[in-house]
Amino acid sequence: MRPGGARRARRRGSSSWRRDRWRPSTSPRAPTRTRHSLSLPGPLAEFPTLHALRAVTGAVGEHSVLADRGWKMPALERMDQDGWDVDELGRFISSSQSLKEVGGRWRSWGQWAAVFEHFPEAPGGQPGPLSHLKTIGGIKRHGGWETAEQYLAGVRRLRDVLTSRGCRKSLTSLDVEIPPFAGHDDLSALLSVDGFINTCCTSPNVPLNVRIVGGFFNLAVFYADAFPPRPSPFIKTAIKEAARQADKLTYAISQHDITHPIDDPSPAAIDIASSLSFVNVRLRVGRECLWLRPPSRHHTTRPRHHQPPAAVPNCPLGERAVCLQPSGRVCGPFAGAQDAQGGGEGGVQSGFGEGEF
Q1: For bias kind Basic residues, which ranges apply (predicted)?
Q2: Domain, as residue range, for 266
């Protein structure tokens, strides 16, 4: 045998022995080895149902990814979040049948309607998924560019969305932001919100937090044709808050006032006006003129002496009136008034001129 041949033979024999040692046995008594390939579980046939989840609090914008998990939360009662958009919030809570409270940042009437539109409408004769709803987050105006018509449309939309899903006489409080009283037509915003309260809240006397946008208070609101003869608690609260928060007090005569009496406010208007206090009015108002189109030549109605409501003396500017000049030019209300700091000059115009138009 060549040198080293025995050594190579032993190595070949040893390797053969090792291979034979791990070769699967065909003996019926020995277990056989089978190889299985690893694989991930298939998708869930249904989204998980979290029966015990009743509240979600402290959620911020980063947690909005939970809205895409498809969780079913029939027992969810409270949702408190900040930074979620209307679609994310609506998708996340839409499976609840027990929702009582939805908190978070202030949203417009239309935005809140978009949140609750994710819930299914109540079938005929059924209570609906929002029948337990007690409170929602604050309701604000949709920016300063929102018109009166858009504001009213938003109120109606949210009212219809809530009632169609079971929220009737259910809400126990309301935080709402209303437009300022800049003209006769702005009373319509209060009446619309008042109708929402009567439909969706447990009582007209529910706790209210009313916020006013803008600093104007136009006393002409008390002479609006639509001023209710029996104002609700909300109407009274809103007008008082508007007066308290106002920093500019005006009386703007519109075309409507040329042909309608402005010296006989209703007893309800007098009652509310007598309780107002314009404690924050600090700026001189007046010296601004509103140009009106004179009435037709055959119209015989002339404006008569008018005294603003009795609440005006509670204003730092004191009691003022307006003056309608023969040219049809309306002098700014409280013309010649002094501001709360004193100063200024001139008397107060205290009546309407009666010259020919």
Answers
A1: 1-13
A2: 217-357
The amino acid at 280? N
Backbone angles phi, psi at 64, to 5 degrees: -65, -15
User: Cα-atom radius of gyration of the chain, to the nearest Å?
Assistant: 37
Q: Say which residue, 351 or 212, is predicted with more confidence.
A: 212
Q: How far apart are CA 85 and CA 64, in angstroms?
A: 8
Contacts of 355 (CB under 8 A, 6+ apart): 325, 326, 327
Report how far residue 36's alpha carbon sits from residue 14's, in angstroms, rounded to the nearest whole number: 31
What is the token pair recorded at 287?
A: 């010296």
d(CA 11, CA 175): 90
User: Which helix (H) or strand (E) segment is 15 a member of?
Assistant: helix 5-21
Cα–Cα distance for residue pair 179/150, rounded to 1 Å: 12
| Concatenated DSSP letters of 77-139 | -EEEESS--HHHHHHHHTT-SS--EE-SS-EEHHHHHHHHTTSPPPPTTS--TTTT--EE--E
Mean model confidence pLDDT for the chain: 75
pLDDT at 43 over 80: no
From the number of C-beta atoms within 10 Å of its C-beta (0-12, 13-18, 19+), residue 101 rates as middle
Nearest Cα neighbor of 110 from 64, 159, 147 is 159
Q: Which helix (H) or strand (E) holds 150?
A: helix 148-163
Instruction: Please state the rounded mean pLDDT for residues 187-210.
Output: 94
- pLDDT over 60 (residue 10): no
HEC per residue, 204-247 = CCCCEEEEECCCEEEHHHHHCCCCCCCCCHHHHHHHHHHHHHCC
pLDDT at 278: 86
Same domain, 250 and 342: yes
* pLDDT mean over 17-31: 53
Q: How confident is the model at residue 295 (pLDDT cuts 50, 70, 90)?
A: low
Q: Are residues 133 and 262 in the same domain?
A: no
222 and 139 fall within a common domain = no
Identify the burial level of 152 via C-beta atoms within 10 angstroms of its C-beta, where 0-12 means exposed, 13-18 middle and 19 or more buried. Answer: middle
- Of 138, 153, 170, which residue is a domain's last? 170
